[in-house]
């Protein structure tokens, strides 16, 4: 199947975080700007059955490849955390099944459509031209995001629970001097000028931290991964390649791209301690992540890859 690519993309307004929303909008704009790409109707939580049926008819009538951008990390429960009603979830799944190709930042490993393409979130901050040195940083670990009091001491069942973020924060605060950890209980709902101030502070703190904590949230992969890579910082993450589709999963398995902690082993503090004791290892992970982000999270490169993959169907 060759010809102009049709993209069925999820409406960016479904994203609860304004930074993530802007990044997805930017990425999809890059796709729509290509001469061989046509953006088709984008489903929203407010769509009725008739809206889905009308959009499905457009997809079914197309003689060209169709693509759905799917930001969720579950095929069974795409409404998790996104305020989508149950009837919307079921219709969305049927709608996605019509596509020739499903692309997204955190596609589940199993149980979904036959043809998929992993497209990690693009960064929400500017990419550095080169990773900066980490030796003279102000903080060892940085985290900005919403979290809750963990309320328990053991490992969680689901690491996407906001309480697990609180669990990680508590473990790091117990293991490191208070002045070496910067934690922002950030809810980025604010007026534009306040948002600009928050963004400037966020970038400054990233640049002056050795490690960026990137726990799961609404999904396993978050903008913190891409932002940490973009600013040349070592990203602290669980092993996402065992949970969702990512480019070059073998490099994740070897620990080249992130400092990997194991939620089951509750070893986040040990992983950080070992990394801080080896500046060469920390710098190598930071550079590898920066190069990975340049290759896989640039919206322009993603648009080209998406079009080429669909054209080859």
Strand order within the widest beta sheet: 2-1-3-4-5
- Could you describe the largest sheet, including whether it forms a barrel? 5 strands, parallel
CATH architecture of the largest domain: 3-Layer(aba) Sandwich
- Which CATH C-level class of the largest domain is it? Alpha Beta
CATH topology of the largest domain: Rossmann fold
| Number of DSSP strand runs | 10
- Computed Rg: 20 Å
Shape: globular
| Secondary structure tally, helices | 10
- As an assembly, this protein is single chain
The low-pLDDT segments are 1-20
**Mean of pLDDT:** 80
Topology:
Blueprint: E1 5-9, H1 18-32, E2 37-40, H2 49-61, E3 66-69, H3 86-97, E4 101-104, E5 116-118, E6 139-145, H4 162-175, E7 181-185, H5 192-207, E8 209-213, H6 223-230, E9 234-238, H7 249-253, E10 259-261, H8 268-276, H9 279-296, H10 299-311
Parallel strand pairs: 1-2, 1-3, 3-4, 4-5, 6-7, 6-8, 8-9, 9-10
Helix pairs in contact: 1-10, 2-3, 4-8, 6-9
Describe the structure.
This protein is α/β, with parallel strands linked by helices and 313 residues long. The chain folds into 2 domains: 5-119 and 299-311, Rossmann fold; 139-296, 3-Layer(aba) Sandwich (Rossmann fold). Helices cover 39% and strands 14% of the residues. It has 10 helices and 10 strands. The strands form 2 sheets. Strands 2-1-3-4-5 form a 5-stranded parallel sheet, sandwiched between helices. The protein has a 5-stranded parallel sheet with strand order 7-6-8-9-10, with helices on both faces. β9, α7 and β10 (259-261) form a beta-alpha-beta unit. α1 (18-32) packs across α10 and α2 packs parallel to α3 (86-97). The longest helix is centred in the last third of the chain and has 18 residues, at 279-296. It is globular and about 60 Å long.
């Amino acid at each position: 199947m060759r010809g102009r690519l049709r993209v069925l993309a999820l409406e960016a307004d479904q994203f609860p975080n304004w930074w993530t929303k802007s990044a997805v909008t930017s990425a999809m704009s890059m796709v729509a700007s290509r001469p061989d790409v046509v953006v088709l109707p984008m489903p929203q939580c407010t769509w009725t059955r008739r809206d889905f049926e009308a959009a499905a008819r457009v997809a079914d009538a197309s003689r060209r490849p169709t693509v759905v951008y799917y930001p969720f990390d579950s095929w069974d429960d795409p409404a998790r955390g996104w305020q989508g009603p149950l009837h919307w979830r079921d219709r969305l799944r049927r709608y996605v099944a019509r596509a020739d190709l499903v692309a997204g930042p955190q596609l589940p490993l199993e149980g979904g459509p036959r043809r998929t393409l992993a497209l990690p979130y693009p960064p929400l901050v500017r990419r550095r031209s080169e990773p900066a040195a980490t030796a003279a940083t102000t903080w060892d670990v940085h985290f900005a995001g919403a979290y809750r009091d963990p309320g328990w001491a053991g490992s969680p069942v689901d690491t996407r629970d906001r309480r697990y973020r609180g669990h990680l924060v508590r473990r790091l605060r117990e293991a490191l001097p208070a002045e070496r950890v910067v934690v922002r209980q950030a809810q980025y709902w604010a007026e534009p000028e306040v948002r600009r101030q928050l963004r400037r502070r966020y970038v400054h703190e990233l640049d002056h931290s050795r490690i960026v904590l990137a726990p799961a949230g609404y999904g396993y992969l978050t903008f913190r991964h891409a932002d940490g890579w973009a600013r040349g910082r070592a990203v602290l993450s669980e092993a996402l390649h065992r949970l969702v589709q990512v480019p070059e999963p073998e490099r994740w398995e070897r620990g080249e791209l992130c400092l990997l902690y194991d939620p089951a082993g509750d070893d986040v503090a040990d992983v950080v301690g070992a990394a801080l004791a080896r500046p060469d290892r920390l710098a190598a992970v930071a550079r590898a992540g920066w190069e990975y982000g340049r290759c896989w999270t640039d919206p322009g490169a993603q648009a080209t890859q998406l079009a080429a993959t669909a054209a080859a169907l």
